[in-house]
């Protein structure tokens, strides 16, 4: 029996299913949740709802949800007693990944390297480059018809998750993309890639460019205080193009936390491990070899009455120091 058949058998007889995305979900997470919802419907589940925490702030992600008319509820609306089963997609544990930290899943489908949780159905495949690839495989094995909305969502997710297929794609991503290509609305995808930057995103990226500090082939920089969490990842992708740079950390203060996004094309550097070494003792951190993220509470650096500009500056210095220390690089005078 394949994993897809095992999932279908597990869902048989289920009346309601809640699918929990990780906070600030990206297209891979959202498209995977949408695909699991379609599989659940095929299995006879009458009520399936998708939930997310945090914000959907990246301009392409907002366009992704709006143009595809996706229906997602915020985590604040989730009531555990309303659902027979709960599924996590693109994350395996609640701690550090979702606002719903007390919720234990019945189903977990993920491509990140993590310890397998104890639940009824677990499919973790860290040899895959995207969770969407796993869901596409389910569709193929179960021979479920795919509509244009889902095909478009999955193709966009596969492309975005592997950043134009240069960030460690596997054969699974190419095979999945080839399968969903015939079900996608390519004109709609062109509109998604043409989504405009918000002024706040441009401000955050420009601040990150201005504040950059480089040690050898490693660059770290602060975007200051920003409302655009996803601008950090966009700035990291952009700065990875700087000549002589192969590892980047971009961080910024978003609400009451320091959010971070790292990128690396150096085969000797595992971005997820570096961030865990640098920040796991004071917050949450992890990810892949080529891309990773971390979050630490701003309150670790001072109390709420501290001057905001001084607080952001102090936090920035501490983050840069910890990052360079984890890579055994000289701090310099930043």
From TrEMBL:
Record-annotated DHHA1 domain positions: 220-298
InterPro entries in the record: DDH_dom, DHH_sf, DHHA1_dom, Oligoribo/pAp-PDE_c-di-AMP_PDE
Domain DDH: start-end pairs: 18-147
GO MF term (any one): nucleic acid binding
The protein, known as: NanoRNase/pAp phosphatase, hydrolyzes c-di-AMP and oligoRNAs
